[in-house]
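Please check this one:

***
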Amino acid sequence: MITVSYTCLRCIIAHSPIYNPNLGTPYFEQCYTVERKLGQGSFGEAYAVYCKEDGRRYAVKRALDSFRSSADRTLKLREVQKHELLPKHINLVQFYKAWEENGRLYILTELCERSLLDYCTELHIIPEGEIWNIFIDLLRAVDHLHKNDLLHVDIKPENIFLTKDKVCKLGDFGLIFDLKNDTAYTPEEGDAKYLAPEVLNAAPTKAADVFSIGITILEVTTDIDLPSRGDTWHQIRSGHIPDRFFKGVSKDLTRLIKWLMSPDPCSRPTTSQALSDAAIASRIPVRSAYLAYHRVMVTVSEQLGSVLLWLVALAHLLVIPFLMFFDALRRKKNDVCTTPYKGTVYFTVRNNFVHFAVLVFAFFVLVRL
């Protein structure tokens, strides 16, 4: 039995051309093909999947275990709720739908090429031009969250993703904090390597997210191994970042990282202020143009399959009547010269039936599109 949570997936399943409840196999197994495993954590398993319904590829997160209780179910559905609160943004991983099956939660999202953590682990040294693009995209993503009074709380390279054309997207909204509705927060849930110092003793603020952006960019820029505790952890958060970390880093990037990581939350910029800084603002037009191009290409690629199917169906509607007409003329001409035998009549009837069936199919395809 499939229970749909918060989304209209119940309707989607009811009209699915693939799902058959009489088979007794899960919706996920019937409608999706697992292509590879993306990762596993306390949340569950993540897979890259191919959807048989629309021919597109997605990422799906599946809980490892069934819900232990109604309280456990409510806790695990928080990410779904937060996803649905968010207006779409090019720098946020897009949420599509979620469902429960046999007590396990499935979350279907946009599929990205890799995480920023994997990218940095592979390359180690990231060109500064790419770092600026990551910086701008990440600031825009968090700025979008903050404008909706939402805090991510868990910003780190592992939760930042890159598409194949290097668009940076913030994801994993399991710990997101709603400033309007949430009251309780457990700081132990976040990753200590990226936490702002004040979060250990108080509720998170927008300034805490800004700090996490700064220390994330610090790690990406310098390829240092951030500590999760100890003297160096406190030294970095007291504003005493060793100059050797910034060897070969431009003055503007160094200045911005230190600004975002200011020990005093009130001294940190907001995301809007950071985006207005001259060093970033001067790079935004080029980045915006690239992201606009990316949006167009994504839209075109998503619609290409439907367009091709529409063109094929239209071609059938236009061509088949002519074929049937000329076939009728040919048969009429043959009737004058010869008398058809039984096999010829059967072939002609069968051929016309096939043409008619294809014509009807093409008509319904066009109506559906």
Summary: Confidence is low (pLDDT under 50) at residues 1-6, 341-350.
